[in-house]
Amino acid sequence: MIIIMRPDATEEQIGQVTDRLKRSGFGVHLSKGAERTVIGAIGDRSAIQLETLQMLPGVSEIVPIRKPYKLVSREFRKEDTVVELPGGVRIGAGQKLAIMAGPCSVEGEKEFLEAAAAVKKAGANVLRGGAFKPRTSPYAFQGLGEQGLKFMAEARRQTGLPFVTEVMDTRDVELVARYADMLQVGARNMANFNLLKEVGRAKKPILLKRGPGSTVQEWLMSAEYILSEGNKQVVLCERGIRTFETITRNTVDINAVPVVKKLTHLPVIVDPSHGTGEWDLVPAIARAAVAAGADGLMIEVHPRPDEAKSDGAQSLKPETFAGLMAELKLVAKAVGRPL
Q: Which CATH architecture has domain 83-334?
């Protein structure tokens, strides 16, 4: 349930309500908007009489949240959440589109620096790359680990762009958070609840990808795990779901963009690279995502895709990415979004 405080409620009155809830065994989450303060109470409603809460000074109304996800819901927070990264990058609420670009995996310092410079020149405002790579085959390239994180940190120093990279294991969260500006929970780990709890305790923004066989509600429930641990800086990423279609790698659920923005206050971006698996399809889906209202894109870019150690087939060359950025400006302008 949520307790909506009156606009003139004092800090003391808000404190009285939260203390009362905590004494009754509720987990308490505070959301202060421009017009109202909302207190989210997670726990057994039978543990407290709602009438006594309603009578506390400063309380306006008590509203039950019927959805299984609470903190993620629009009922809990009507205003859009804005997730902030270093360098002035703000994701959500109609802010400038976040364009996260770079190679699938960090293959070497020289190669990554080359890619980073190219995407920065084209207009990307966040670097992406994998230091730890989840692969279907145990014999495929698994990433460079901490050395890859160091290469990404050097690229950040040279370009001024923050970077996002995937964390796969609870044991690596502290290490990755030491280097990265944003931690990615990949599609394969969307339902890794121990990992979700661990990144929820981290002090870094989280990018949560949708699992290939997951419903929107399951995706939002995974986000709820992160928020329930105290981390409210979460960006959702639609990256395609598994359907009966086999021509493309996945099927990008464009519907998910407006649906998620209706159900939750969290920002949502789209990954057309994993969504299609084919580089020549990426631009069309990227344009469609912006038109549908996405807050950003995650696009794989590699200087020499034919030499890439992973996902070369879906990676754009720098010149193709630059052309796409020019097209996206037109689409963004048409729907009233800055790029």
A: Alpha-Beta Barrel (3.20)
